[in-house]
Amino acid sequence: MSSFFYDLNLIFSIYIKMIFKPKICDLHNDLITVQDFENAKKYLTDNLKFLSSIVLAVWTTYTKYNTVADVKNLINEYQKLNLNAKLLFGIEDISFLAVNDYEKFLEIKPFYVSLTWNYDNFLGGGAFGESGLTQEGKQL
C-alpha cells in the first residue's frame, strides 16, 4: 500500500513540475562569465527542464568583456546553444561604451543595463563608491 502512495506522489510531483514550470531564473553573472564555457553549458542544459526564461548578466568591470564586440561574442556563444528557453541578457557597468557605440550596443537588446557596478565611473557612483549619478549618466 505504501508503494502505491509513493508512486502516486512521484507521478503527481512530476506532473506538477511539468505544469508549473518556473518562469524565470536569474543566474546573475556567476555563470556567464565563467572561464570554462563547457561547464556553464552543461549546467544550463542539465537544469533547462525547470526553466522557461533565463537571465544571464555580463559583468564588464575588470573582465575581458569590456567592448561591444566582446559582449556580443559572449552572448552569441550562449545563443548558439539553442536552449529551449528564452535567454535574457543584462549588462552590468556600461562605462566601457563610447558615444559612437550606443547604437551598436542597442542591437544586443539587453534585458537590463546598469551604469555602474561596484565602483564609481564617469556615469555614476557604484555600490562601494562615494558619488551619485553624474551628468553623463543622466544624459545616457
Radius of gyration: 20 Å
Class from secondary-structure proportions: alpha/beta
Classify the oligomer: single chain
Low-confidence stretches: none
Q: Report the end-to-end length measured between terminal Cα atoms.
A: 66 Å
Proportion in β-strands: 5-15%
Shape: elongated
For the largest beta sheet, what order do the strands appear in spatially?
1-2-3-4
Rounded mean pLDDT is: 79
Helical residue percent band:
25-40%
Largest sheet: 4 strands, parallel
Individual helix count: 5
SSE series: HEHEHEHEH
Number of strands: 4
Written description of the protein model:
The chain is of the alpha/beta class and 140 residues long. Helices cover 36% and strands 14% of the residues. Strands 1-2-3-4 form a four-stranded parallel beta sheet, with helices on one face. Helix 4 (102-106) links the parallel strand 3 and strand 4 (112-114). The longest helix has 18 residues, at 2-19. It is elongated and about 55 Å long. The model has no long low-confidence stretch (mean pLDDT 79).
Short précis:
This protein has 140 residues and is α/β, with parallel strands linked by helices. Helices cover 36% and strands 14% of the residues. α3 links the parallel β2 (53-59) and β3 (86-92).
